[in-house]
Each structure stands twice: as structure tokens, then as C-alpha cells.
Design a protein that fits this description.
Elements (H helix, E strand, L loop, with lengths): L2 H11 L9 H11 L5 E4 L5 E5 L6 E7 L4 E7 L5 E6 L10 E7 L2 E8 L8 H5 L8 E3 L5 H7 L5 E4 L4 E2 L4 E4 L2 H17 L7 E7 L7 H10 L3 E9 L8 H4 L9 E4 L5 H13 L5 E4 L8 H5 L6 E9 L7 E4 H17 L9
Parallel strand pairs: 3-12, 3-13, 13-16, 14-15
Antiparallel strand pairs: 1-2, 2-12, 4-5, 4-9, 6-7, 6-9, 7-8, 10-11, 11-17, 14-16
Bound molecules: zinc ion.
Zinc ion binds next to helix 5 and strand 13.
Length: 352
């Protein structure tokens, strides 16, 4: 992976983007794509659209959601502690004892989220699964008044952001879902823009995926593509307790995952697989029999229908503080997407 591309990944991971509060990460995206996109626009929903050949009659949309799960300050306690709601799907157990950041109008504010220590839990409490409402954010304020000077109801909160490289080309960070998929989409456009493109390519940093796939729906309507590929993370199954009988064999480092099933256009799937084979890009195959909980879902049913594919990045510990991926997987996914858009002639027939 080139140094500039690696820097982009880290920058995306270290920039907050809870759903509904994506402007900081969209600033990073706009600055990066300015060097190679023919046109960069932002729609009223907040989606950033970087296009090559925007006037071409055949349009392909690459969707990578930029938003991450987070919390939203909902109440300031008499003693200055904060209570919060969730943005997106959390396992509250994952939050106990985490370092957090409250993104206030005056800047980032360090916080911790926890509950009382094990010594003080009753036997009954020890058996229970913790609920978010029984935890609190502690910013070190001495009083409600002090907290209110810093924090406003509706301020977003994230895990403390930070990227860590590990052995074997692996890395962990909060919000690999889906900063790494967003990275793939941007990097694919950059790589493809060096070649001769016969179609319009629209790389979209979509918003609000984590609260119902909303940005892909609005941006796809606006772009009106004939072809769409979403990039998002999928569960790696190469760790204990995950049932491969249903989820299949998905390993970190074995390449991007091409998903087959009714949410996908079979001609697109075969094109992706044959390009992976031809370009010697390691890849994996996964099955899903239902509408996907990611941007490929609204893409497929936009307007009169879009020929849709999903390229997924294996991810361990999704929606936690330590989401793990393989850097090789995202690098290869960007190659596969770039090869895909370069392969489009403008008169391919993707009707299933
Ligand atoms: Zn996601």
C-alpha cells in the first residue's frame, strides 16, 4: 500500500463521523478526492460524490458509508455525569470501561464510560447483562453547571479513536466499519482514474448507513446509476464461537469477499469473480439469502432498479473498540473495484 493511501486510512479512522455528524470526515474526503476527481459535489443529505466522466450516459456508483456508530448525549445528571442514547447498533457490554470522546462545540472532550465496580455489584446484578441506561459518561466535571458549560444535549460521542497496526499485516481501530470500505471506494476511484474510463464513475462517501442505509438511498436517487457496487465490512468467521455452517468460511487476509444472493445482480457477481481470477486477486465467496443490512440494499431497488454488487471486507469484532481487518484485503478490494470500473465498456448488458 502506498504511503499516501495508508495515511488516508489512518486519517479516516481518526476523524469522528457518528451518523448525522459526518461533516469532519467528509472534509477529509473532499480534500483527498480533489486531486483526481473531475467533479466533487455534496448533496443536501451530506453525501460526498466524487465523479470521473460525470456526463457519460452509463453511470456506475461505488458506495462506501463514512458514518460510524456512536452515542448521543441525552441528559446531564445533577452531579455532572452524562447519559446517552445510542446511534446505531451497540452491544452495551462492549462499552464498559472504554475511553470515549464527546465532540462538543468547543472541541473534543475526553470521557470514560463505566458502571460501579464488580465488588459493589449485588449477586443479582452480576448475573445481568448491563444496559446503557445503567452506565454513564464521566467527563470529570464537578457539577451539572460545569458540565453544561462544556456539553450540549445532542452532542455526539465516539469511542476514543485510534489506529493500531498488528502482526501479519493486520490492524485494529474503532469504526473499521466502514472507514476501511470508504477507503476502498476512494482508492478504487484514484487507481481507476489513471486508466481510460468509458463510463461515469461516482465514488460516494455515503452518510447515515448505521441508522437505516439512508445516505445510499438519497445519493443513488440523485446519481441515477445503472450499476452500483457497495463496499462494507462483513463478519470474519476465523475466530472462536462463530458458526461457519451459516456464515461460511471467511478469513482475514484471504482477500475481499464477493457476496452472492438475491440482493446481488448475478451478472455483476460473475464479472467481479472473473476479474479477480484474471488479475490474480485473492478473494472469497459468501452467500446471503436476504436483503443486506448495508448500502447494497437501497442501491438495488433505487428507482427502476440498479445492477448491484457487494464487495465485503472481512472484519473481526464488528461494532467494538477493536475492529480488526487485514490491510492486504482492502488493498486487493481497491484493485478489484478499479478493475471492475475499467472493464465497463458502456454497452455491457447486466440484465439478469
Ligand atoms: Zn457498515
Amino acid at each position: 500500500m502506498e504511503a499516501a493511501a495508508c495515511d488516508l486510512l489512518i486519517k479516516l479512522l481518526e476523524t469522528p463521523s457518528p451518523s448525522g455528524f459526518e461533516r469532519p470526515i467528509q472534509d477529509v474526503v473532499r480534500a483527498y478526492v480533489g486531486d483526481f476527481a473531475d467533479r466533487v459535489t455534496t448533496d443536501l443529505h451530506g453525501n460526498v460524490i466524487a465523479a470521473k466522466n460525470p456526463e457519460a450516459p452509463i453511470r456506475v456508483m461505488l458506495a462506501g458509508h463514512c458514518d460510524q456508530i456512536g452515542l448521543l448525549v441525552s441528559h446531564i445528571h445533577d452531579q455532572g455525569f452524562l447519559h446517552a442514547q445510542t446511534i446505531g447498533g451497540w452491544d452495551p457490554q462492549q462499552l464498559i470501561g472504554q475511553r470515549m470522546t464527546v465532540w462538543t462545540a468547543v472541541g473534543p472532550l475526553p470521557a470514560v464510560i463505566s458502571r460501579k465496580p464488580i465488588h459493589l455489584l449485588t449477586d443479582e446484578e452480576r448475573k445481568q447483562v448491563v444496559k446503557l441506561e445503567d452506565m454513564w459518561l464521566d467527563i470529570g466535571a464537578k457539577s451539572k453547571d460545569e458540565a453544561k458549560e462544556l456539553v450540549r444535549i445532542g452532542d455526539p460521542v465516539t469511542l476514543q479513536l485510534g489506529y493500531q497496526e498488528m502482526r501479519g499485516g493486520l490492524a485494529n481501530s474503532p469504526a473499521m466499519d466502514n472507514k476501511c470500505g470508504l477507503w476502498v471506494v476512494l482508492e478504487a476511484l484514484r487507481r481507476a482514474s489513471k486508466g481510460d474510463l468509458k463510463v461515469g464513475v461516482f465514488a460516494v462517501s455515503t452518510v447515515a448507513e448505521e441508522i437505516g442505509l439512508r445516505g445510499a438511498q438519497t445519493s443513488a436517487f440523485g446519481i441515477d446509476p445503472q450499476i452500483g457496487i457497495a463496499v462494507d465490512v462483513t463478519h470474519a468467521t476465523d475466530c472462536p464461537t462463530i458458526d461457519k455452517r451459516q456464515r461460511g468460511e471467511i478469513n482475514l487476509g484471504s482477500g475481499p469477499v464477493v457476496v452472492r444472493g438475491p440482493n446481488m445482480n448475478p451478472v455483476i457477481v460473475e464479472r467481479l469473480l472473473s476479474l479477480a481470477q484474471k488479475n490474480e486477486i485473492p478473494h472469497q465467496l459468501a452467500a446471503s439469502g436476504r436483503a443486506q443490512p448495508n448500502d447494497s440494499n437501497p442501491l438495488q431497488i433505487c428507482r427502476a432498479g440498479v445492477a448491484t454488487g457487494l464487495v465485503a471486507i472481512p472484519n473481526r469484532y464488528m461494532h467494538s473498540a477493536v475492529e480488526m481487518i487485514s490491510l492486504d484485503d482492502i488493498d486487493r478490494a481497491a484493485d478489484l473495484l478499479a478493475a471492475f470500473v475499467v472493464s465497463l465498456t458502456g454497452d455491457d448488458d447486466f440484465r439478469p
